[in-house]
Amino acid sequence: MNRLSQWSIVHPVWCIGIALFFVLFASIGAKNLYFRGDYKVFFEQDDPKMLAYQNETATYSNADGLIIVLSPADGNIFTKKNLSLIRELTESAWLIPYSNRVSSVTNYQHTSAEDDDLVVEDLVPDYRPLNAKRIDYIRRIALSQPEVSGALVSVRGDVAAISVSMFLKDGDQTGQFYEATRYVERLLDDIKKTHPDVEFHLIGNAAINTAFFEAATSDATTLIPLMFITVTLFLTFMLASWRLMLATLLIIITTNTATLGLLGWYGHYLTNGTVNIPTLLMTLAIADCVHVITTYVHALREGKQKVEALTDSLSLNFMALLITSVTTAIGFLTMNASTSPVLSEFGNLAAIGVMIAFILSITLLPAILVLLPADSFHGKKAQQGKIMVRLADSVITHHKKLLPIGAVVVLLSAFALLKNEINDNPVQYFDSDNSFRQSAEYTEKRLSGMARIGVSVSSGKPQGITEPEFLRHIEEFTDWARQQPEIDHVSSITDIFKRLNRDMHGGDTEYDRLPPDSALAAQYLLLFELSLPYGLDLTNQLNIDKSSTLVSLIVKNLGSKELVALESRINEWFSSHTSSCTKCTVSITGTSLMFAHIGETNMISMLQTLPVVLVLISLLLIFALRSLRLGVISILPNAIPAVIGFGFWGMISGEINLGLSVVTTLTLGIVVDDSVHFLTKYRYARLKGDDVEQAIRFAFETVGRALWVTTLVLVAGFSVLASSSFRVNADMGTMSAIVIFIALVVDFLLLPAALLLFDRQSYSLKGQRENSA
Q: Which of these, 318, 250, 327, 236, lies nearest to 282 by C-alpha position?
């Protein structure tokens, strides 16, 4: 591989031609790429929770959809004008793409008894005049029925909701969610013209998926380009050459196009994870290029010619670049331990991209530099050398103070790190001025939360849901669920049975209870189902053979920690009530729960694999540096930045979301890059016969500026990403900038101090001969 890099200097035109041919061929595959951001891409096809949710949606009506919330300025839903608007909008909602069920207070299937007949009709039918008496009747029914109150109408009667269930096609559902959401937004824009006094909000799975898509698109079209511009400007300033900046920029672009092109050739798509690959590869490509360029410039300042300067740069940096790239790739490949395909695919693609960046940095970059005119850097050498040597001298002088101070900081950070908790709240992914977040928080305050948990309970036999024992079991759970503070609304089949029993007894409230026997319950159910209109049947609560029922819980906009805790309490309730239904089986599902678990399992897998990665990296460094001591010492600068970074995060926030769970892996490449380059330069000097102090000064002088330039450029770039309105990207940018900066501080202060303390032993003459050979 080193010969390949030397060949690129001797035959630059051939090297550029071959490299560009490979990049162009690979980039053709990018035409096959498309973005897919629906929830299914986060889970393996055989994931138990995914299978349970798919089983629920196949058994009952699909719960994915939209909720249109109406809030009139007069604070009263129950007026002729507002009820007419809800009825009109309910009818229009049937035309929303992919909609298969529309529920509102106006088409709520109200039951009443007339003589011996059961009458089932819309609560607000179009053939009944909306006079004061009728409106008062509608209000009384709506606010007293558990199926309506708290779900379709607020308990105060000031807010109403229209729930739209959707049946989506297989495959990419992001586009389908987006299409439906845009259709509703256009519909509401038209309605607002004639009803300016009504405030509308849009929530639900389709709305939040669209919000995710728009956030990713916004960052991709604004912040990420701005990040690249910022990095470009800083590179130009720090490298003091627009030609060197363009050479680095070309490596960044070719690395990204080749990597994403290969993904397209593979026939895959971009996800919420892999869409961040360009940002990651930019950081790693910059690190590779800056090391080659700064050493090359250093040699030019020493008076060497271009070819000789490039040869020295590649000889000095090749092994460090190789070690860094391999160890970084190993780190990314360990993301296959994640249970989420989004993260495992991110790791695999990143590992490929890392090696592409390495190959192009030691082939295409030197070939370009040979053909470019050598810029004049005279007059700057002395000042830069003085700064780094002065820093080295200061560290050497105070190293006995630095280590204890560093140990205290690390220890305090480790304690603060324990304050972090995994707590994803998708609603809070967005800025407070984001329209979706405002709608979700407004709806939670005035009506109910947005998250839904489905509790499917099976009786174990066909028609078993009409058994008195089973119905009492469901009723007990329903009553318990309505007492839980996290649950805003409960939809249960037992409410319908009690209502039917009451209405079949002339509306006598004494009979507002479950039917006493199975035959009567089955009779009521059949009579009710035969009376229901198309699209409003009971398939959203009962399966086909009537062996199981779905109890739907609408919960507050909770974080993942609270959702998992609520799920545990539900499971405990059923476990402690097996005697009331011995043959019952329970399945608890919901997209919110699925994501709550995936954040927890991913963080656990990351924490479990990180020590393994650090050990593997250290073993590789022991082999590459041929030094057990240096390999062991390398654990400190590779592990400490993440500990201090997450300790700091524990003090300022304490909440870890899905984006932060990958920061350690995301920044590991830069962290390892800094320590490896410092250690390889240090070892090079030691093998030449320098003592520890001289070797540290040599490392600072040769690689110090490169580390400083890389860190400053990347911190500036990630700081731009930290201004994202999408919290996942903002937190990831903030934390990445913090960890990368801490890594530089550790490599400049603690790593030399550790070497001065633990690497005093003289290097052998054999090692010197090895180096000279």
A: 250
CA distances from 212 to 36, 540, 572, 662, 733 (A): 11, 27, 34, 18, 17
Q: Which residues pair with 72 in a beta bridge?
A: 198
Dihedral (Cα; 94, 97, 98, 99), 10-degree rounding: -20
Which residues, including other chains, have CB under 8 Å from residue 487's CB and lie 6 or more apart? 481, 553, 554, 555, 556, 566
CB 278 within 8 A of CB 256: yes
Length of the chain: 773
Enumerate the β-bridge partners of residue 491. 552
DSSP one-letter string for 660-725 = GGGHHHHHHHHHHHHHHHHHHHHHHHHHTT--HHHHHHHHHHHHHHHHHHHHHHHHHHHHHHTT-S
Cα→Cα distances 584→458, 565, 580, Å: 5, 22, 9
Q: Are 343 and 355 in contact (CB under 8 A)?
A: no
Q: What is the 3-state secondary structure (H, E, C) of 382-403?
A: HHHHHHHHHHHHHHHHCHHHHH
Q: For residue 42, which of 210, 182, 181, 174 has the smallest C-alpha distance? A: 174
Q: Which amino acid is at 280?
A: L
Write the pLDDT tens digit of every residue in 615-665.
Answer: 888 888 888 888 899 989 999 999 999 999 999 999 988 888 777 877 887
CB contact at 8 A, 286 and 710: yes
* pLDDT single digits (tens) 53-75: 888 888 997 767 899 999 999 99
**Torsion angle of alpha carbons 750, 754, 755, 758, nearest 10°?**
180
Classify burial at 180, counting beta carbons within 10 Å of its beta carbon; exposed 0-12, middle 13-18, buried 19 or more.
Answer: buried
> Which phi-psi region, left, alpha or beta, contains residue 331 (left: φ > 0; alpha: ψ -120 to 50)?
alpha
Residue 100: φ, ψ to 5°: -135, 0
Using pLDDT thresholds of 50, 70 and 90, give the confidence band for residue 142: very high
Domains within the chain, CATH numbers bracketed? 1-32+241-373 (1.20.1640.10), 47-217 (no CATH), 451-556+558-589 (no CATH)
Report the DSSP beta bridge partners of residue 228.
Answer: none
Instruction: Report residue 495 as tokens.
Output: 């409410």
How many Cα atoms within 13 Å fall on the side-chain side of residue 134?
15
Let me know: does 479 contact 551? Beta carbons within 8 Å.
Answer: no
User: Distance between CA atoms of 200 and 295, rounded to whole angstroms?
Assistant: 61
What is the DSSP-derived secondary structure letter of residue 239?
A: H
Query: How far is Cα 609 from Cα 257, in angstroms, rounded to an integer?
Result: 30
The region that residue 570 occupies, defined by phi over 0 for left and psi between -120 and 50 for alpha, beta otherwise, is alpha
Whole-angstrom distance, CA of residue 450 vs CA of residue 555: 7
Q: Closest Cα to residue 642, out of 620, 616, 619, 675? A: 675
CB distance 735 to 658 below 8 Å: no
* Closest listed residue to residue 702, CA positions, set 723, 727, 680, 681: 681
Count CB-CB contacts under 10 A for residue 400.
Answer: 10
The pLDDT of residue 520 is above 60? yes
Q: Strands of 99-103's sheet, edge to edge?
A: 99-103, 160-166, 65-72, 198-203
What is the Cβ-side half-sphere exposure of residue 115, based on CA atoms within 13 angstroms?
Answer: 1
Question: For position 378, what pLDDT does the model report?
Answer: 44
Burial of 31 (0-12, 13-18, 19+ CB in 10 A): exposed
Question: Which residue intervals of 372-464 are DSSP H helices?
Answer: 381-397, 399-417, 435-446
